[in-house]
Amino acid sequence: MKTVLENYLGKEVGINYEKPFKIDAAKLVHVADDYFSIVDDDKGYTHHFAWASIVQIIENADGVDIGGVFSHKQHFSVVVKVGHILEYVPA
User: Fold this and answer.
1) What b/e sequence results for 19-28 when a residue is b if at least 16 CB atoms lie within 10 Å of its CB, and e otherwise?
2) Pairing mode of beta strands 46-50, 24-31
């Protein structure tokens, strides 16, 4: 995983950093031996993720299109999907 993401260091990536099913833009700012870091485009917060949190990395030389019929399409060179801890809220 590290060698894949090192190619995108300093570039915009798509990642579901806040919500499991929503891919947002972020800048990949750090790739270490045990984690990677992004800065989100929304608030400028830095997020750190352990490599074990990665569920999937999608890359394509022509880019990866995210979005659909009811949302604005975004185009990324690479998309990273990370796992989320589900919150249980009693009814």
Assistant:
1) eeeebbbbbb
2) unpaired
CA distances from 20 to 3, 9, 15, 23, 53 (A): 24, 23, 9, 8, 12
Q: How far apart are CA 82 and CA 50, in angstroms?
A: 9
Per residue in 26-46, pLDDT tens? 999 999 999 999 999 989 999
- Tally the C-alpha atoms within 13 A of residue 62's C-alpha that lie toward its C-beta: 1
φ, ψ of residue 4 to 5 degrees: the values are -70, -50
Contact in structure between 14 and 80 (CB atoms under 8 Å): yes
The whole-number average pLDDT for the span 11-28 is 94
